Each structure stands twice: as structure tokens, then as C-alpha cells.
Amino acid sequence: MKHTFLSLLALAVLGAGTAVVAGDGWGSIFDGKTLNGWKSNDEVPGCFTVENGALKVSGGRAHIFYVGPDGYAKFKNFECKAKVMTMAGANSGIYIHTEFQGKGWPSKGYECQVNTSHKDVKKTGGLYAIKDVLNDAPCKDNEWFDYYIKVEGKHIILKINGKVTTDFTEPDNWEPPKGMPGRRLSEGTFALQGHDPKSTTYYKGIFVNPLP
What residues contact residue 203 under an 8 Å CB cut-off, 6+ apart? Predict the structure, then answer.
């Protein structure tokens, strides 16, 4: 019976788009060696590489989307955790509930901001242009920090190093900011942002736990 339950759990998680299933429901979506399961829009060729077990984002504006083993990864309710490290002046982001887009800033879903020392006052741990962390970042450049994201229903929680930085519930009559009509919860995948030529950010240990 236990074996059957775990097998069903594995199939359920794989169906949600993850690649490796852990016993507690967490699955890895980055293997630390390749970009398998990810698709770049190549606005800046070579912006996404693997270096020392981490996904390196550097070189300019481009986005890489998690598409999963079958190319159709989608998540609705989930927990996501990753280790992130910014270099001086870096700006990046983790998009949720988004979809592949050939160019430009992703129009669908929300951006979980990654910015320790870039001149933009919107810092790491905020929901970009929705509920921002302003001026003082809860992390440091050149140090790995833990980024946690949870979406359940209309509720989003972001944590940096275990501390809640954003707690946002999307209202039933939600009206996104002007010019950002796609900033709303639905379902979709994850994307990592390359922001500008001087930005370098690293991601590793990216895991997702799909929720009911």
C-alpha cells in the first residue's frame, strides 16, 4: 500500500511538470548540470549557462522558462524554494504563473524580485510593482540566500532566509497596475530573468512542491 501511494504521488508530481520527485513531494526542476527542461527565449544568446552546479544568468535582457520533461509544465498551487546569489549591481527575478514569451518582459504572472544592490529601489523579496520591498534588501551580494515562494488560492507568501518579506492576497475584484494586465494569478510555469548587461545572478537547488 505504501509503495502504491508513493508511486501515485510521483506520477501526480511529474504530471505537474517537475523532473525529480523526493519522498516528501518536493521535486527538483534544475539538475545542476544542464538546462534540460528549460527553454530560453534567446533575446541575448548565451545569457543562461551552468557554472559550478548553478544556473548562471548574465549578459542582458532574456528569460528562461521551465517547460518540464514534456514541454508543458504548469503549476497552480505550490511551494518553491531556491538558493540565489547576486553579484554587485545585479537585477533579476523569478516569475510565477507565467508562460513562454519570445521577447520582452513576461506579461503573464507575477515577478518575485531579485535585487540586492541594483539602483532600482525595488529589492529582493518583493512582488514587483504589486507589493514591493523598498530600499533595503534582506540579503547580501556574493552570498547564497534562500528564496521561498508559496501560492495557495489567491494567497502569495515570499520568504528570504526564512523571514516573510511579502504576504499578499489578490482581491476578488483585483485590478492590476496600469500597463500590466497579466499581473494576476491563474496557472503557469516559472521563469528566471536576465535584466541587463551588467547583471549576474546565480540560482541552484530549485525545488517545487505542488499543492492541492
Answer: 30, 54, 55, 57, 82, 83, 84, 192
Instruction: Write down the pTM of the prediction.
Output: 0.90
Q: Which CATH superfamily is domain 2-210 in?
A: Exo-inulinase; domain 1 (2.60.120.560)
Q: What is the largest CA-CA distance in the chain?
A: 55
Tens of pLDDT along 36-67? 999 999 999 999 999 999 999 999 999 999 99
Q: At which residue does the C-alpha cell 519570445 appear?
A: 102
Domains of the chain, by residue range, sit at: 2-210
Convert the pLDDT of each residue in 170-187 to its tens digit. Answer: 999 999 999 999 999 999
- Residue 102's nearest CA partner among 42, 44, 60, 187 is 42
Q: State how far the Cα of 128 lies from the Cα of 158, in Å rounded to an integer.
A: 12
Is residue 92 exposed (0-12), middle (13-18) or buried (19+ Cβ within 10 Å)?
A: buried
